[in-house]
Amino acid sequence: MNMKSNRNLLAGSLLAAAALLAGAMSISIATAADETTAVAPPAPGARGPHAWHHHHGAGRLLAKLNLSAEQQASVKTIMANARPQMKSIFQEMRANSLKLRQTQPTDPNYASVVSQVTQANGSLHSQMITQREAVRAQVFKVLTPAQQTQLVALQAQMQARMQARGRGAWGPAGAVAAPAAQ
Fold it and tell me: How far is Cα 21 from Cα 33, in angstroms, rounded to an integer?
């Protein structure tokens, strides 16, 4: 694996971890805000300061599903339970990134450090995917069959919008996805 591939893997892993953490935090913050205020939740489609659809990632999509209070509480618990492990994985990946940045190519141990970080990040990336998908499966079980169908459709729409804007899963066209044929 060449250095550019390693950097892309590391960048993708860090972005995925950050996205999951941001989604988890936005759901937690939105739910906490709903629980601590005496104001009735906004009507579907209403845009209040604490409405879930103002947040990015999972929170934005879940807001469109009109979750019940019980479902919101379940999702909050799932996210809260996953947060420590995801945070730990993310911190380890950041430490590995720092280790790479602090090691200069002229360092006699440079190749060894790159190899160690590559192996460590491969394992961390695998753990992150496993954890993220476990959370996804748990959240999916909280949803009704109609909400599950709606979520799948919303995710497909979001992916189509990203592709239409020339962005793959992680950013500009060509970063992860192949560039569109002319």
Answer: 18
Asked if 37 and 50 touch (Cβ cutoff 8 Å), the reply is yes
**β-sheet bridge partners, residue 167:** 172
Which pLDDT does position 168 carry in this prediction? 59
Token reading at 8: 């892309």
CB count within 10 Å of CB 57 equals 18
Stated as kind and residue range, the H or E segment containing 75 is helix 69-102
Is residue 167 within 8 Å of residue 158, measured between CB atoms? no
Question: Cβ(53)–Cβ(154) under 8 Å?
Answer: no
3-state class (DSSP) for residue 167: strand
Residues 6+ positions from 133 with CB-CB distance below 8 Å: none
Q: What type of residue sits at position 14?
A: L
Distance of CA 139 to the CA centre of its chain: 14
pLDDT digits (tens, 9 = 90+) for 132-154: 999 999 999 999 999 999 999 99
Can you tell me the distance from the alpha carbon of 162 to that of 168, in angstroms, rounded to the nearest whole number? 6
**Are the CB atoms for 27 and 55 separated by under 8 Å?**
yes
Tell me the sheet residues that pair with 172. 167
| CA atoms lying within 13 Å on the CB side of residue 161 | 6
Q: What is the dihedral of CA 111, 116, 119, 120, to 10 degrees?
A: -150
Q: Is the pTM of this model over 0.85?
A: no
